[in-house]
Amino acid sequence: MVNPMRGEVALVLDGQPHVARLTLAALAELETELQADGLTGLVGRLDEGRISSREILAVLIAGLRGGGWTGQAGDLLAVQIEGGPLEAARIAARLLALAFRAPA
After folding, report:
1. Could you say which residues of the chain have pLDDT below 70?
2. In the prediction, which pLDDT does 84 show?
3. Which DSSP string do the residues of 50-75 spell out, in sequence order?
4. Measured between alpha carbons, how far is 25 from 6 in angstroms, rounded to an integer?
5. Which spans in the chain are helix H?
6. What pLDDT was estimated at residue 42?
7. What would the pLDDT profile of 19-41 be if each residue is shown by its tens digit?
8. 25 vs 13: CA distance, rounded Å
9. Is the N or the C terminus of the chain less surrounded, counting Cβ atoms within 10 Å?
10. What per-residue confidence (pLDDT) applies to 104?
11. Are residues 83 and 39 in contact, defined by beta-carbon separation less than 8 angstroms?
12. What's the rounded Cα separation, in Å, for the pair 2 and 8?
């Protein structure tokens, strides 16, 4: 079961539930993968609906690793994401929103 208060989101791959979470290490990996000078540009593009499929996959991979997944990028390309590309984009957006929300 996921805990949104910890920034966790559920992601189902080939029928198997996984926990995704953008930890600080996962965010650093995401910056490196996207060769970004920070993630604010990515968040801004997401808000404007201009995020690429490559960026969505990078967010999902980082989130899965933050949740304890030990797979590689190629592993994610070979599985069925429940809900398809639209759900993948929604989950990526949720991960980023939870990672950058202000504390309550």
Report:
1. 102-104
2. 95
3. ---HHHHHHHHHHHHHHTT----HHH
4. 15
5. 24-33, 40-47, 53-66, 73-77, 84-99
6. 77
7. 999 999 998 888 888 887 777 77
8. 22
9. C
10. 59
11. no
12. 5
